[in-house]
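SEQUENCE-TO-STRUCTURE ENTRY
===========================

Subject: a protein chain together with a token-level encoding of how that chain folds.

Sequence line: the amino acid chain in single-letter code, read from start to end.

Question of interest: how does this chain fold, as expressed in backbone structure tokens?
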Amino acid sequence: MFVVCGEALFDVFVPEGVSQSAFAVPFVARAGGSPFNVAIGLRRLGQPVALLTGVSNDFLGDRLMAVLQAEQVSTECIVRKAAPTTLGFIQKNAVGVPNYAFYGTGAADRLVTTADINLDGKAVSGIHMGSYSLVVPPTADALLALARQQSGKCLLSLDPNIRLNVEPDVQQWRERITKLLPFMDVVKVSDEDLAALYPDVAPESIIADWLARGVKLASLTRGREGASLWSQQAQVTLPTPRVNVVDTVGAGDTFQASLLNSLLDLQANTADWASALTETTLQRIGQTAVCAAALTCSRQGADLPNAAEVQQALTELTL
């Protein structure tokens, strides 16, 4: 079982074309949150997966649990909390790029403690953690302790997914990522993440530093400009497939889920998966990830593809 750690919330979309001065705004809500999306994405790709988070006892929390159960994501690591459900409001710009406003102070997904986490006796193939859960206490401290405890025992993955409207202090993000990096095998970032974290440093220099610290696979997504993957042995860059973009919500989560799915398959079939990350392997798993992400961009919201859809996209999409 693969365990994904982080927030679970509702994305609330502001429809296009509604006047700024309108009294009535017909919002549309969708279950989400980056780790929530990654967990569902992995399950749709065929991996056994559990979500580790705090979920409210309110009716929105009940809905989140129902979605996870319908998607066959294990809820055995979830702790229910007498606290609100986070709401993330999303308004897209003219080219479909989302702007976010989060309302989650004191919400259930920010209140996970070390005592809430117990993976003893569970066969854990890997752990992924990311987004604002990394910097909001006590959840942030619980996840750091988990990373320290599980380092070297299973595959550990990180996607910072920077959200400055949740925690505007960039230094806190930098410090937490620095603390987590020694335990991580896989790190995925976007160009927007690196621009927020290290605005005056070339992305390639940052990636090189992470690889020197022991990261086995690093990936950088650049939206329309494609994505790059680095291992200790090789580096590749993939273009973005051409699709009719509806919005980009969930694209990075889809890329992450696809990448982890490929690594778990590699891990299951190779004694030393990190040594198998040659240029050919990076090209294959990178192409799969960008095609999967492109499928999500062609849909409204974070509607991640299943394995059959990704396989079809690999034969149909033009890179």
Summary: The chain is about 35% helix and 20% strand. The mean pLDDT is 93. The longest helix spans residues 251-269. The two ends are 33 Å apart (CA to CA).
